[in-house]
Design a protein that fits this description.
Blueprint lengths: L1 E8 L19 E4 L2 E4 L20 E8 L4 H5 L23 E6 L2 E6 L3 H6 L1
Bound molecules: iron/sulfur cluster (SF4) and zinc ion.
Length: 122
């Protein structure tokens, strides 16, 4: 056990929308019984990329005693098949273009680098 940063999910706020599952490259988050859960703390590297994705503000990060992060085990996780990782404007997937997470009107979505300039410049 070591003291390090790790993700915490507030089940009262979580709607089970699933938007945080694919952004976790380590495969640490799954939807179980309608709520997002960190399935194994050794898969969570504590970087918190999922925090900005959650439209409900249900994800935070805390420092506490837990198991060490297992990078090999995380790399071996099968990538989840998530329909949410698509550019909301053109529908491109992350295999085709670079995608960035953005927020608008209290929602979380993805935009590709080709469509992003039109959001910036109108
Ligand atoms: S993005 Fe937020 S509300 Fe949606 S499943 Fe993940 S923790 Fe729950
Ligand atoms: Zn696009």
């Amino acid at each position: 056990m070591i003291k390090r940063m790790i993700v915490v999910i507030d089940e009262d706020k979580c709607t089970g929308c699933g938007k945080c599952v694919s952004p976790c490259a380590e495969g640490a988050i799954r939807i179980i019984d309608g709520k997002a859960k960190v399935v194994s703390e050794e898969l969570c590297d504590g970087m918190g990329f999922c925090i900005g994705i959650c439209p409900e503000g249900a994800i935070s990060i805390e420092e506490r005693q837990t198991v060490t992060f297992d990078a090999e085990k995380a790399a071996a996780q099968a990538p989840p098949n998530d329909v949410y990782i698509q550019c909301f404007k053109c529908g491109s997937e992350d295999e085709d273009r670079y995608l960035l997470p953005i927020r608008h009107n209290r929602d979380s979505m993805w935009v590709c680098t080709q469509c992003l300039p039109s959001l910036i410049h109108g």
